[in-house]
Design a protein that fits this description.
This protein is of the alpha/beta class. It is built from 9 helices and 9 strands.
Length: 228
Amino acid sequence: MHSIRNFFCGRWSCDVRLDGQTVIITGANTGIGKETARDLAKRGARIIMACRDMEKAEGARKEITEDCGNENIVVHKLDLSDTKSIREFAELVNKEEKQVNILINNAGIMMCPYSKTKDGFEMQFGVNHLGTGVSVFSLHPGVVQSELWRHLNSRVQVAVKVFRPFTKSSVEGAQTSIYCAVEPGLEKESGGYYSDCAPARCSRTASDDDLAHKLWELSCKMLAITWE
């Protein structure tokens, strides 16, 4: 049996290995991102921890390496509030990595005081939406070359953490990201919304294709990028 869902302990288990696969996880030095990195490292994956705070990231890398016995874990600088940092990160990955199999966009902020990114965008919108968009766009050459098969955006985890405070630990909160990354039955799924390791309904606004298209066009215009 490949997977077991256990709601009583808040964990989802699966025996699938990820040996030979490369995983990028943003915001992997703490919380959900760190626990996701730990789980996938135990499965044998090469982990690229993309973090803003390099000191904390190196500490997390050392802890996970010692815990999992996986030496194939690296740390790279990534600041989603700075498009220059994002493009430098993507250039490094595209240059050094032979393949990227899984991209987990875990990093994000919520309900922060009003401020702006280095590019002049409102911080929350700039990091969570535009920053993530630039990272995917900038990795595009490598994605095409390596046939990236899973791209996960963990905003569902952020929502769970905000609207259900103190009900989940970081380990429990990471389960849906882990599930979407490794569950064999999801290999060909795309565009789904998941919560508690299961498909979930998103809002009517989030399901509006016309609105999504307009947002996409506006975002590309704001970032001066063209996706071909």
